[in-house]
Amino acid sequence: MRKLTVLLLACTGYISTNSLFAQAPRVDQVFGLGGSTSNISGMARSVSGTSVMDINYSARLRQFGIVYGPRVDVLAWKSGSLSISSPLMLGFASTDQYRSIDYNGSTRDTIEGLRGTSFAVEVPVFADLNIGLHSAADESLRKHFGLFIGAGYAYNFAKVRTSIGKLTYDGFDPVFRAGIRMGRTWENRFSLALTVRGNLNANSVRSYGLQLLKEL
Fold first, then answer.
1. How far is CA 103 from CA 26, 44, 155, in A?
2. CA angle centred on 33, ends 83 and 140, rounded to 5°
3. CA of 97: how far to CAs of 22, 111, 188, in Å?
4. What is the pLDDT of residue 21?
5. Rounded to the nearest 5°, which phi and psi values hold at 2?
6. What are the phi and psi torsion angles at 142 (to 5°)?
7. Which residues touch 191 (CB under 8 Å, ≥6 apart)?
8. Using CB atoms within 10 A of its CB, is residue 45 exposed (0-12), middle (13-18) or buried (19+)?
9. Distance (Å, rounded) from C-alpha 100 to C-alpha 202?
10. Which of these, 176, 118, 128, lies nearest to 30 by C-alpha position?
């Protein structure tokens, strides 16, 4: 949880600094739904008295939830803007396609088919370049469509059911995203974003996500 605390403090400090020193920064909000899927793997150990169990597991982790967060335009021009956003996701995670090799020091067993659910949270911070229709407040008559692309970091927390019990699966990793923004007026303005999350430890893709957001 220390990583999550650092991320929240950094985000709060950035927004507060811009509110104090920037000239009337534009603050919007987003609300919607999000989901992601990942193929995960790991190793763990369980010790009970003199008994030791080592497992090498893999599973598919899916996360779904409600998304809400602020968005601050730090720089805007006629055809776009540069923004900072933090669309927090709260929901649940489920695991399936579980498989592990369990070793107790003398024998190896293969365990398959375990499923589980848990609480899940994701706290990202993105810097986005917005082109065309660039915010909920953009009421330009000739703009009904926009693109955005950005990058940042996200903290993710979930629990994974394994043969030795539920294990914490979390990480603080880089995320890239791209999407579209559409709608003639504020009342019907939505954005659709695709995210790709890496894994600093494994140097590989960690998850793919999709978010449908109403711009407020």
1. 56, 11, 31
2. 45
3. 50, 11, 39
4. 41
5. -60, -40
6. -95, 0
7. 30, 148, 179, 180, 181, 182, 211, 212, 213, 215
8. exposed
9. 19
10. 128
Q: Cα separation of 152 and 8, whole Å?
A: 14
Residue with tokens 């790709």: 196
pLDDT of residue 139: 78
Q: Which pLDDT belongs to residue 203?
A: 55
- Distance CA(99)–CA(26), nearest Å, equals 48
pLDDT in tens, 87-131: 999 999 999 999 999 999 899 999 999 999 999 999 999 999 999
Q: Which contacts (CB < 8 Å, 24+ apart) does range 9-13 have?
A: 10/125, 11/86, 11/125
Distance between CA atoms of 173 and 158, rounded to whole angstroms? 14
The structure tokens listed for 169 are: 């699966």
List Cβ neighbours of 23 (8 Å cut-off, separation of 6 or more). Answer: none
Q: C-alpha distances in angstroms, 146 versus 33, 69, 139, 143, 191?
A: 20, 20, 12, 8, 9
Read off the tokens for 145: 């469509």
**159 Cβ neighbours under 8 A, 6+ residues apart:** 93, 116, 118, 119, 166, 167, 168, 169
